[in-house]
UniProtKB/TrEMBL annotation:
The keyword Membrane applies. It is found in: Membrane. Keywords: Membrane, Transmembrane, Transmembrane helix. This is DoxX family protein. Coiled coil: none annotated. It comes from Deinococcus aerolatus. The chain crosses the membrane at residues 113-137, 149-170. It is a multi-pass membrane protein.
Length: 200
């Protein structure tokens, strides 16, 4: 009988105590709630303003008009010795975004709205924050500063703290259904299912 060699157990990287405290400790959930509500409010306000715009330049009869004007402004920023917009992003705007301005208009308006609602409710917080940060990154690449740097930083923090950022929100009950984390009531009731204390 041949005994096959067993593969070595994979190395486990220990999470530093400060990282666990900041990004996984429910005691900091109130802080994450405030951060999440602020970012969610910013996105909800921006998206709601676009969706309900009376001129219909984002969604409606004239959808794409606002995006077309914005993107044409982006192309102007690609010239000169020190352009505000990188050449590759200008290519993307000219060849992909502008020809599909109507689709991008709906994506931006409803994307902002959905990110805001998800963050305020604490539903799939990490995913919502990721897409919010993705929108911020695109606005920054397009040469628009405004509140985008701050929101991008806060979105990055929310992505890092996804385990606790939605603790005071729907994630606390939604994520266990997807097997992402234990339901808090189950862990409290069954000591055997509580995470083991790390070896010091």
């Amino acid at each position: 009988m041949t005994i096959l060699p067993t593969a070595p157990a994979p190395a486990t990287l220990r999470e530093p105590a400060i990282s666990r405290l900041l990004f996984a400790d429910p005691r900091l959930a109130p802080l994450w709630l405030l951060l999440r509500l602020y970012v969610g409010h910013e996105w909800l306000s921006a998206g709601w303003g676009k969706v309900t715009n009376p001129a219909g330049v984002w969604v409606g009869e004239k959808a794409g008009a606002a995006v077309t004007g914005f993107l044409n402004g982006v192309l102007v920023k690609t010239g000169g010795d020190h352009p505000d917009v990188a050449g590759w992003y200008g290519w993307f705007v000219e060849n992909l975004a502008l020809p599909n301005a109507v689709a991008f208009s709906y994506l931006v308006a409803y994307g902002e709205l959905l990110v805001g609602v998800a963050l305020i409710l604490g539903l799939f917080t990490g995913i919502a924050a990721f897409f919010g940060g993705f929108l911020n990154a695109n606005f920054l690449l397009a040469g628009t500063v405004s509140s985008n740097p701050l929101l991008f930083i806060l979105a990055t923090w929310l992505v890092l703290g996804w385990r606790v950022a939605g603790w005071w929100g729907l994630d606390r009950w939604t994520l266990p259904r997807f097997g992402v984390m234990e339901h808090p009531d189950t862990v409290r009731a069954d000591p055997a299912r509580r995470p083991a204390e790390p070896v010091r």
